[in-house]
C-alpha cells in the first residue's frame, strides 16, 4: 500500500511500525534517599505554607498583642520585683523579674497568636466543648 493511499477504515496510511527500543518496558530507577527526602520536604513545606496562609494573624492582632505584651510585662515585673528578695538589691530584683516576665509572656503570646486563628477554623460546638 502506498503512503498516499487511504486505508479502508478512513485513516491515512502510516509508516511501518518500528521495533520498540530495548529496555522500553523496564521499570524506572528507584529514587535515591536524597530525592525522597527532597520530595517529602517539598510536600511538608507546601502544606505548611498553605496552612499558614489560612491562620496567620492580621496586622491589628500584632499591634494589640504588642501593647498587651508590654503592659503585662511591666505589671509582672513590678509584682515580681517587689516580692523577690534575692539579696542583690532592688534594681537587680526588678531587672530579673522583668527578664523572666518578658520571656514567659512572650512564649504565651506566641502560643495564643497561633491558637486563636486555628480555633476560628474549628466548628463552634467542638471548640466550646474543648474549652
Which helices and strands appear, and what pairs or packs with what?
Layout: H1 33-55, H2 59-83, H3 90-121, H4 124-130
Task: Describe the overall structure.
There is one protein chain. The protein has four helices and no strands. It has helices spanning 33-55, 59-83, 90-121, 124-130. The longest helix has 32 residues, at 90-121. The termini are far apart.
Quick recap of the structure?
This protein has helices at about 35-55, 60-85, 90-120, 125-130. The chain is mainly alpha-helical.
The CA-CA distance between the termini, in Å, is 81 Å
Low-confidence stretches: none
Mean pLDDT: 77
Overall shape: elongated
Helix content: 55-70%
The total of helices stands at: 4
- For the CA atoms, what is the radius of gyration? 33 Å
User: What is the makeup of the main sheet?
Assistant: none
- The topology string of helices and strands comes to HHHH
Helix/strand-derived category reads mainly alpha
Please report which band the strand proportion falls in: under 5%, 5-15%, 15-25%, 25-35%, 35-45% or over 45%: under 5%
Tell me the total number of β-strands.
0
Keywords:
single chain; 131 residues; mainly alpha; 4 helices; 66% helix
Amino acid at each position: 500500500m502506498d503512503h498516499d493511499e487511504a486505508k479502508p477504515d478512513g485513516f491515512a496510511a502510516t509508516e511501518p511500525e518500528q521495533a520498540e527500543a530495548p529496555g522500553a518496558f523496564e521499570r524506572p530507577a528507584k529514587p535515591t534517599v536524597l530525592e525522597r527526602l527532597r520530595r517529602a520536604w517539598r510536600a511538608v513545606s507546601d502544606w505548611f505554607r498553605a496552612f499558614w496562609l489560612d491562620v496567620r494573624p492580621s496586622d491589628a492582632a500584632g499591634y494589640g498583642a504588642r501593647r498587651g505584651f508590654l503592659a503585662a510585662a511591666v505589671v509582672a515585673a513590678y509584682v515580681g520585683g517587689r516580692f523577690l528578695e534575692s539579696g542583690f538589691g532592688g534594681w537587680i530584683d526588678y531587672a530579673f523579674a522583668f527578664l523572666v516576665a518578658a520571656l514567659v509572656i512572650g512564649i504565651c503570646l506566641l502560643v495564643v497568636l497561633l491558637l486563636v486563628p486555628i480555633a476560628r477554623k474549628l466548628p463552634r460546638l467542638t471548640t466550646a466543648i474543648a474549652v
